[in-house]
Amino acid sequence: MTEDDDAHAPLADPGRLAALAETGLGNESDAALDALAERARQRVGTPVALVSLVTDREQVFPGLAGLGEPWAHTRRTPLSASLCRHEVVTGAPLIIEDGALDPRSRDNPVVTDIGIGAYAGIPVTDAAGRVLGSLCVIDHQPRRWREDELAVLADLAHSCSLELRLRIATRDAHQERARTDTAEAMLRVAFTRSQLLLTASQALAHADDISQLREIVTDLVSGDLKPAYVGLTLTESDGDLHRIDDPLQALGPESGDAFSHVEDDTPIALTAREGNLQLYPDPEAIAAAFPETAQRRYAELGLHAITCVPLPGPDGVAGVLLFGWDTPHDVDVHEQAVITTLAGYVGHTLERARFVEDRVTVARELQEAMLTRLPDLAGVRLAARYLPVGRHEQVGGDWYDAIDLNAVDGADRDAVALAVGDITGHDIHAATLMGQVRSMGRQATWERPTGAPSAILAATEQACVATGVRATGTVLQAHLRPDAGDRWLMRWASAGHLPPVVRHPDGSTTVLTGVDLMFGYPELREVPLTDRQVRLAPGDTVVLYTDGLVERRGSDLDIGIRRLRDTVAALDPTDTARFVDDTIRRMLGQGTPHDDDVVVLAAHLPATDRR
């Protein structure tokens, strides 16, 4: 293989090309990515910014700002004229300060065609870390890039990566849902005569996980097929088989280890290997096919006949259903059709449950990855928790943030900016908007370390309008700074958010009232956002939260806030992390399902002198 082949290999990687296709993006304008390119152009201060995706034959620009013709119209260039391919090949940023002199660019005709005096590109990746392209900015003159400019570009590239990943996940979900719906529709048409199959399709459609699937299988077959026992075994990696027992089933579980192997000499293993229906109508048939150990397992359950059917999956057999009868039983053609069709339903449900579980896990990991690692401050003890909604396929727009203001301007030791928010919605779109609003809020805070909280909220809101991010909800921004003596000053602004609660050292509490119009409606805001302030003493604890902590169906919000005050009053805030955990546990109840995301952020001011 030549050096050119080695260099081209990452570009031709099948997984990377598949991920590019799943974004659904090409050389047509994409509003969100155009807006992101415009943000990069403005933030870094360059005439041109591009969101470039690189295939194995060309590069396309679904997002661009400031690029002249003909590229602004065609939004594509051949691979030979691509600087962005360097990010794909190396997996690293490409920083060029003089395009005419740098050996990586000087011989590229695009330098002269576009007028690349300086170039900075940051890779954008999918969830597997594969580089799909880059977010790049171009200056027409040579330029020495500053670290803060590259940091802004890297942050925007991260947002671009999240956008691409969420698009891939959403596209996969739509395709999987369409495929599943088609398969289920075909099965319903073919077997409408069977009430069992109709009941099965209705019940299995609501199965969210494997434990529910196991319960539904038991309930469905016990009444109509009349088996005495139903077993469910799933195929795992490396040929392992995992039996899923139902503790509520009258008969069972089977003896022996719940884990076995596909090469074992058992009816389950044989069905998993061969992938077809296996019928054993009496003990003699079982004895003729399997050794005594396998015979004994079913004899101990009192089974005289068994039927095993494979569960279809995307990569072959996903599992095996075993039906057992306590008398000899010859399964007729009609029962075989019912059993086989039921196995198809179960297989599709199993595939959907696993897919949903993976999808939710990825979405929540992305959401949690966007939550802040709290700064370590000498004079303030911070703790925060994010608890996602309990329902499957539900992620939301709640978040918290904390920024060490001393790290920004070096002015106030222990000064910290706190934020909590709740973007409307409980889906991947809401989580996407949350990430964009949070990033804009952080940028506004970094640009205004001594600014008022209201100014930061207003800047964030205006940035959303300017970039077309249609996010609405509630946000609270608060700044804690050391004040005279051992006191603290907290200034805050609230765009529709719930009031902070302050717990005092004696256990009493104060609700910090005052709220302005919800976030996301600047055109309706008749008066500017208001800054409010309160002085705090050593030992005070500020509690910020979202509505999932205090709102309950059929209950007044004031009652929820009163419960929160009583709860924090009874807890010791000196161990702030435990204080937050205990607050959530007491407010929600141990193991009680909740129907909204929950965020709690606490700032405790130790009753000791600040270092």
How would you sum up this structure, described in words?
The chain has 611 residues and is of the alpha+beta class. The chain has three domains: 169 residues, GAF domain (Beta-Lactamase), CATH 3.30.450.40; 171 residues, 2-Layer Sandwich (Beta-Lactamase), CATH 3.30.450; 234 residues, PPM-type phosphatase domain (Phosphatase 2c, domain 1). It is 40% helix and 23% strand. The strands form four sheets. The chain has a six-stranded antiparallel sheet. Strands 9-8-7-12-11-10 form a six-stranded antiparallel sheet, with helices on both faces. Strand 5 and strand 6 form a beta hairpin. Helix 3 packs antiparallel against helix 7, helix 7 packs antiparallel against helix 13 and helix 7 packs antiparallel against helix 15. The radius of gyration is 30 Å and the shape is flat. The termini are far apart. About 1% of the residues have low confidence.
- Uncertain runs: 189-193
Look up the CATH topology of the largest domain: Phosphatase 2c, domain 1
Which CATH architecture of the largest domain?
Answer: 4-Layer Sandwich
Radius of gyration: 30 Å
Q: N-to-C terminal Cα separation, in Å?
A: 63 Å
The main β sheet shows up as:
6 strands, antiparallel
Number of domains: 3
What is the tally of beta strands?
22
The helix-and-strand class reads alpha+beta
Mean pLDDT: 87
Strand percentage, roughly? Answer: 15-25%
Give the class-level CATH name of the largest domain.
Alpha Beta
Looking at this structure, what is the CATH superfamily of the largest domain? PPM-type phosphatase domain
Global morphology: flat
